[in-house]
Amino acid sequence: MDAREQDEQVVASELARYDRELRRYRRMRSRIEADFARRLEAAGFKYFHVSARVKSRESFERKVRRAPDREVRDILGVRVIANFEGDLPAMEQVVREALIVDDDSWVDKAELLPIDAFGYRSVQFVGRVPEPGQEGLPTGSIRTVAPGATPDEAGGSEGAHELPQVEVQLRTALSDTWSELEHDLRYKSARQLPREVDRLFALSAALLEQADDNLDQIRRQVEEARTAGPTASDGGGERGYIGRFIQYDGDSRTLDQVVTAALDVPFGVVTGAGRELRSVVRAAGWLHYEALADGFAEFSELGRRLAIACATTTNGILLTDAEPQRPARSFRGIGVYWTALAAALVADAGIRESRVPDGRLAEYRVVATYLYEHPDASALEVRRRYGAAAAPVGTMDDADFPPIRLD
What we know:
This protein is 50% helix and 9% strand. The chain is of the alpha+beta class. A five-stranded mixed β-sheet has the order 1-2-5-4-3.
């Protein structure tokens, strides 16, 4: 069999696979679109749009014929569109939680552009979609079917552990509009376009990139203007500089994820978390952006260990006794919260305006001091000891909890 015949056999096999899986992909399209939107709303995002599509048979065939030896991984595609570029990194983390992501597939198209060029900007990656009831399926049990494999070679037509794939694209609304128009006007053109058209495309891309930056700045300054007070130290107000830090600092976002994963609770919006966060940041003495950045760098490891040792997963804000009637949720900035709390506690600073009772804060101070003085102590072991000595949940009006010992 020559190479041409082999390619035709692969095309035929892949088309048969497409026909066999089409109904499942169409059914999944609505489910994953709704799931992504629900997760983003729960995480507090307001300005976004999610759309999913199933690649047409004609488009699928063209892609297979272009590269018969390469698996087509975007039969199902989901596009997540944000109004603000600054939201994209955190939105990516939210949607990744719904998938089993192939990290080798991750690409930021903007990084592929030369430093002095403007053009297509989008983050893309491929993940597998767990079927209902298979959310806990280990990654190692997922099998990949090579292009052209027969149903027998794939392990049966049902593909017992073969999870369907989805390509996710995240971009801003302006980038999405530009890419759609460029694709239709440039790449679908049957003739070579004049050089002037290329220059206009590049100029438009540069203007849209600047517009995305402007929108982020506009939103940031509007939010700062809403919350600025007479004691604002950086021109934006307390809430402004704290909000900027937890949104744009990569280490802060990473610590949010680490704490959330360690406590095994869902990520979402927690009413009152912002007020609680501001109270401990002020108590730590971090009254402007630079002080917050420096303090976070110094105490973030202690904050992580304190969260693991003390955070409850039975109450709403992960603060013992604060909201016992609400389910536990993590929130954006939880890493900064426990870091600032740890810094304030070891400095023996007074923490005002907190919903955590004084007696509970006194317990936290013992734990924070112990962890600070014993950097090699296991946070999980300290959690066990603290849990055995802590006052019962529900005694929030009692500010005279008996002292605890961890040694």
